Amino acid sequence: MSKPPYDFSATFKTRRQLLKLSALFSASAALPLLQMANAARAAEPDAPLRIGYLPITDATPLLVAHHNSLFEQQGLEVEKPRLFRSWAQIVEAFLAGQVNAVHLLSPMTVWARYGSKSPAKVVAWNHMSGSGLTVQHHINSVTDLGGTTVAIPFWYSLHNVVLQHLLKSKGLEPISDGEPGPNQVKLVVMAPSDMVPALANKQIAGYTVAEPFNANAEVLKVGKILRFTGDVWKDHACCVVLMHEQDLEQRPDWSQKVVNAIVQAQAWIQENRQETARILSRDNPQKYTPHTYEALANVLEPERLDAALYENSGAMVNTAWNQKRIDFQPYPFPSYTEELIRKLQGTLVSGQNAFLHELDPAFVARDLVDDRFVKQAIHANGGPAAFGLPDSFSREETFTV
Question: Whole-prediction pTM value?
Answer without folding.
Answer: 0.91
